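User: Predict the structure for this protein chain, please.
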Amino acid sequence: MKWIVGGLLVLNLGLWIAVGWFHPQPASKTHVHEPLSADKIKLLTQDEVDALPKADESGDARQDEAYACYEWGSFSAEGLQRAQAILNQHSLVATVQQKTMQEALRYWVYIPPLPSLQAAQNKVGELKALGVDVSFIIQEAPWRNAISLGVFKDERLANKLFEQLQRQGVRSAQKGVRNQEKGRVGLLINDMSAEMAAELNKQGANFPGSELKQVICQ
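Assistant: Here is the predicted structure, written as C-alpha cells:
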C-alpha cells in the first residue's frame, strides 16, 4: 500500500515539473513610450484653436450651395438669343423648349412707357413712396421706359395686384396680356445655384413678360 501512495506522489511531482517547464512565459514588452517632455507641450488659446483649418474647408464648395433646376422664359426668337448669350457667359447649358400660345400667355400689370428714362425713374420713386417696392423699368423696345409691376400666369393674381395698386393710389397702372405671339420658347436650366438664379432675376428689365421659376429636374 505504501508503495502505491509513494508512486502517486512521484507521478504528481513529475506532472507539476512538466507543467512548469512548458508554461509559456509572458512576452516581453518591446514598445516602450518615450517619457513626455513637459517643456515641449503648448496649450493653445481659443483664438489659436479657431484659427486651425477646418476639416471641411478643403471640400467641394458646391456642398455649401443649393443647386436646382429652373425654367426661364418665355422668349421671342430675338429674346432667346440674348438669354442664351447671358447663360453662355456663365458657362450654363440650357435646353430649349417650345411653348404653345397658351403656355406662354402671361397677364401683366404695368405702367405704360414714359417719355424718358428719367421720367420712369421718377415714377419708381413715387411708387416707393406709396409702398410699392416691386417694380422695374423695361429697357426693351417697344416697351422701353414702361414700368413692370408684376407678371402672372394666373389672371386672378394679376387682378388681385391691380386692385391692390388701385387702393394704394397707383392710378396709372394697367393690366394687359403678354406673349400672345407664336414661336415663343423657354429655357430649361439644370444644376444652377440659387445665387446664379438671383442674378438672372435681375435681368427682368431686359425680358419683359418672362419669369424664372424653379422646377422639378428631369
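Confidence is low (pLDDT under 50) at residues 56-64.
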